[in-house]
Amino acid sequence: xxxxxxxxxxxxxxxxxxxxxxxxxxxxxxxxxxxxxxxxxxxxxxxxxxxxxxxxxxxxxxxxxxxxxxxxxxxxxxxxxxxxxxxxxxxxxxxxxxxxxxxxxxxxxxxxxxxxxxxxxxxxxxxxxxxxxxxxxxxxxxxxxxxxxxxxxxxxxxxxxxxxxxxxxxxxxxxxxxxxxxxxxxxxxxxxxxxxxxxxxxxxxxxxxxxxxxxxxxxxxxxxxxxxxxxxxxxxxxxxxxxxxxxxxxxxxxxxxxxxxxxxxxxxxxxxxxxxxxxxxxxxxxxxxxxxxxxxxxxxxxxxxxxxxxxxxxxxxxxxxxxxxxxxxxxxxxxxxxxxxxxxxxxxxxxxxxxxxxxxxxxxxxxxxxxxxxxxxxxxxxxxxxxxxxxxxxxxxxxxxxxxxxxxxxxxxxxxxxxxxxxxxxxxxxxxxxxxxxxxxxxxxxxxxxxxxxxxxxxxxxxxxxxxxxxxxxxxxxxxxxxxxxxxxxxxxxxxxxxxxxxxxxxxxxxxxxxxxxxxxxxxxxxxxxxxxxxxxxxxxxxxxxxxx
Length: 549
Prior knowledge:
4 domains, 28 strands, 23% helix
């Protein structure tokens, strides 16, 4: 089975990057109707029935029809907002280990399992954890394991719902399809179970831990935090894996991370992960890093980490409408949204801001002896280097170092990596077919190479950094021609002017009207009681033209 690619149209519909049908958007912002009516347009009966259809709608077409009916029901903006904040009514559901099947919008069949507390109470909101499994490339179909895929030994002590999806070699965690799968799985679970939208996290072990990094880089909006266990983001830079991208490390800045790696893990030991964690911190990512002394590639440490893990989740609820947002993307149709920011169009402008590049990772220091080779034959000696001082020349073939023979296929740099700086050395080289003995002290210089890119970039991208203070939004952009700000009445006072500053220039200042079609559109897309939007403010970065919907 070949890896399935999610088309832009499908991702657009799911991730809120294309509008609902235009006929729905033509509805008036203010609808007639009185809360006292019991019959006719805008009556309680009409509104109640329309909301019942809205809450029960499942597929994209059904959701679109239900949203259109709701807009025509005569419900006022205030009433719709109140009901959307209250959310759908929930009923009793199955508990324990509950299997489900989902065919995502790209046509791929997925299975997932829920572990639901036996004491589940539909009137309560429940914390939820996505748990991504390891061994992805060793699974060759989409079927769940014989165990059913429950959370098992990695359960915490907090009442919560565990969501365990499944990946396989043709649909690994680092694919567009799995981003879609997690999104649509979450939507399906939220229709049945009362989840706390601001306490939904993504964790995983091994490949699943790497998958948690991937989801953070592609789709941050629904999740409160990411908790990779025994994973490593360097896997996502492996050219031998089918990683869908491109990837932008700065997107990790939006959410906190709880990271665990084993000191003796043969795949991703702590001393390999440590520099990456330091880079996350330099980027401004909030990180709680727990390297486990003596641990390998397993979770035997879980009993001692569990309480800290759950405390981290408890202490880091999602802010659904954060005052600071940053997002970079190469696709203005998919993967272009972070909370209330949507990147609409790419293109460099003369006003682009000189933003930093979190993709550039420090290369660290290395010892430079001053000789470069192909196998054991010198093809370059750096002027003034330790190698030149000892007497090595271009064309020499290193035959022996101290008392050890050097194989013809071994690079000289690799041979000297075993020598302690400050040690006396004796070399035997073949020069012009004659043996030459050289001696000296091994005194390589410590050098720092320039930063190197973590992830390859094959296409242009655009990035927006924004900060909100009251009704003023200050943005800095690079490579973005157009963006949309989604304005929530929970953060903006729409009775007063809104100001948008882009790259030091006031791009918009004026009143923005709350519109019922906008409220319903994004409520249908997000299914989130805590993240409701009353208006869309579109800004053309290059020209400063703007419009509000």
